[in-house]
Amino acid sequence: MSLKIGVPSKGRLMEKTFDWFGARGVTMSRSGDEREYSGRVDGVDGVQLVLLSAGEIPRELAAGRIHLGVTGTDLIREKLADWPEQVAEVAPLGFGFADLIIAVPNCWIDVDTLDDLDAVAAQFRARHGQRLRIATKYHRLVRDFLREAGVAEYSLVDSQGATEGTVRNLTAEAIADITSSGETLRANHLKILSDGLILRSQAELFAARAADWSPANRTILSALTARLGLTTPSLP
Amino acid sequence: MPISPAARAEAARLFAAFQEAGAQPIEADILQPADTLLDLYGEDIRGRAYVTWDPLRGEMMLRPDFTVPVVQMHMAHGADPARYCYMGEVFRRQDHAGPRASEYLQVGYEVFAREAPETVEAEVFALFDDLLAPLRLRTAMGDIGLLMAAVEGLTATPRRKAALMRHIWRPRRFRALLDRYSGCTPAPAARIKLLEKLATGTPADLMAAAGPQIGLREPWEIAERAAALLEDAAAPAIPAREADLIDDLLRLSAPAPEALERLMDLGVDMPAIRPAVERLAQRLEALERAGVWLSQVTFEPNHGRSLLEYYDGFVFSFHSDRPGLPPVATGGRYDALTRVLGQGREIPAVGGIIRPGVVATLKEARA
Q: Which of A15, B39, B287, B353 would bridge B106 by S-S if both were Cys, CB 3.0 to 4.6 A apart?
């Protein structure tokens, strides 16, 4: 038996994850060629490293094909319905901080809050005959947030990248996206609504409720969490 | 879970009863163009319907209800007046695990008629009431038109009335706006700051200082709303007495005959609702003539506000006391929907649906 842990397969998220585990005595490393997506875990027995795209880790956790996974809070909440039913939070990892926010053009001097956005949506529809478009890839989170806030008459348009450019390119009137420093927003002449923070996200270690939690796997999990100095999550 | 044979049999029985009542049976496509539904219901429908893609027709939805296709079909080539009935699956995406079905049967009855609106409303309700009578359900009625009339009658700027009207179907937002407009809650700090900023210069200057003009929203639109904000800040509050009356209206819940009495009393202080109360009186008379036992029906002006926003007058629902079950039947008047879909033409419409699956479940429990 082995316990599978899913980790982002490239970039800063992978490096920081490796650093985080390394600092706690669990060494993760990629084996062989840099292009080969396989790796190993030393410092605790029975743990198998699975390198995955960060965006696919929520799905793999939900299906129980991996036992543990490192991914962003934002992705878990966007991609999994009733997420607490599907995964348990094991530990926030203290990196990969990003805020999911709603931003509008700087030149909208009449807009500061969601109330304003709602009023502008009504005005925009009356003047332009179409709904105010908000570009995002976080459809579920944004829709739930705006429904809670009572914002009406907008529509979401899908944007999988360069979302900050959509307003200038006239494919959206506002955006909802992840930002860490706000620099890209500023460079694209956008400002964050003062009550437009949807979610504070960071990299987190999750456990899959649907994974095979045999006694052997539970023993490995306990050894791993003990090594990492974490409490073992309660799992079915 | 597949639809049970009992639910199918119940659907067939109700469908036959609707035809016997004079309705013409009709079919509707399961795949509906998404843009019409999105334009009507907004982004919320995307969270509640299954969206799919067709390489020829673009974005499509599995029909979340029959109302839109039925109205479209009627507007395209319907007789006047007309009665339709239909039976089939509808599809509702569920974002949370639970007892709510994502695929279930609906059997519906819709009337398009210009004459005698109250009589038509009574006809629809009495038919449902009769078919569901053996189940001894709780029945509730409302009338969105009362609240609309009350808002129209407020001492408030047209802009404030329009904002309240727009949020009639979002009760919490409506409440927040009314509290703010009537001075019950102060303007939020962010708004005060924004107003202070707007007072420091002309919109043109402020926009120039804010950076380049980007996006489809034009400078004149921004300037127009900036002026509207300042104007709104200077507008007098809605008198507390009037806001209290709206509260009284929304809190009202009583057997229909008693509710009518209380609404007539309210009409003394709220003359704006009198025509709507008069229509209610006529509707109740028509219901009585149709044999509905009114003292068993709860009337609430608040009823139907959290449904999808197309009912704009009379609304009704039938519920069982069993927890976890959705309403057995819902319906109401949706004139505004025909106006939107009719592109200039309109026809008054009333109708409703029964969920035969729920009827079957209740019958099994009683057997």
A: B353
Q: What is the pLDDT of residue A34?
A: 65
Least confident of A140-154, B131-145, B332-346: B332-346
Instruction: Evaluate whether B171 touches B144 at the Cβ level (below 8 Å).
Output: no
Q: Please count the structural domains in chain B.
A: 2
CATH 3.40.50.740: does it fit domain A3-97+203-228?
Answer: no
- Binning pLDDT at 50, 70 and 90, where does residue A167 land? very high
pLDDT in tens, B94-136: 877 777 889 999 999 999 999 999 999 999 999 999 999 999 9
Domain residue extents for chain A: 3-97+203-228, 98-201
| H-only helix segments in B235-317 | 240-251, 256-269, 274-289
Domain range A98-201, its CATH number among 3.40.50.300, 3.40.640.10, 3.40.190.10, 3.90.1150.10 = 3.40.190.10
Contacts within 8 Å (CB) and 24+ apart, A40-47 = A41/A5, A43/A227, A44/A220, A44/A223, A44/A224, A44/A227, A45/A220, A45/A223, A46/A1, A46/A2, A46/A3, A46/A216, A46/A220, A46/A223, A47/A2, A47/A3, A47/A4, A47/A5, A47/A220, A47/A224
Suggest the residue from A110, A123, A140, A148 to mutate for an interface test with chain B (most B CBs closer than 10 A): A110
Residues in B whose CB is inside 8 Å of some CB of A read: 38-39, 42-44, 46-47, 95-97, 162-163, 166-167, 170, 172-173, 176, 188, 190-191, 193-194, 197-198, 203, 206-207, 210-217, 219, 221-222, 224-226, 229
Rounded CA-CA distance B287/B281 in Å is: 10
A107, A130, A186, A195, best to mutate vs chain B, most B CBs in 10 Å:
A107
Q: Nearest CA to CA, how far is A24 from chain B (Å)?
A: 37
Domain limit, last residue, from B209, B239, B269:
B239
Same domain, B106 and B28: yes
pLDDT tens per residue, range B181-221? 999 998 888 889 999 999 999 999 999 999 999 999 999 99
In terms of domains, do B256 and B230 share one? no
For the question of an ipTM over 0.85, the answer is yes
pTM of the model: 0.89
Q: For residue range B285-329, list pLDDT tens digits in order.
A: 999 999 999 999 999 999 988 766 678 899 999 999 988 899 999
Contact flag A113-B188 (C-beta cutoff 8 Å): yes
Count interface pairs A-B at CB distance under 8 A.
113
Chain B neighbors of A126, CB-CB under 8 A: none
Please check whether residues B139 and B181 belong to one and the same domain: no
Give yes or no for residue B336 having a pLDDT over 90.
no
Q: Which of B94, B195, B216, B305 to mutate to test the interface with A (most CBs of A within 10 A)?
A: B216
Say whether residue A125 is in contact with chain B using an 8 A CB cutoff.
no
Residue B47: list chain A partners with CB under 8 A.
Answer: 140, 143-144, 147
Closest residue of chain B to A155, computed from CA coordinates = B43
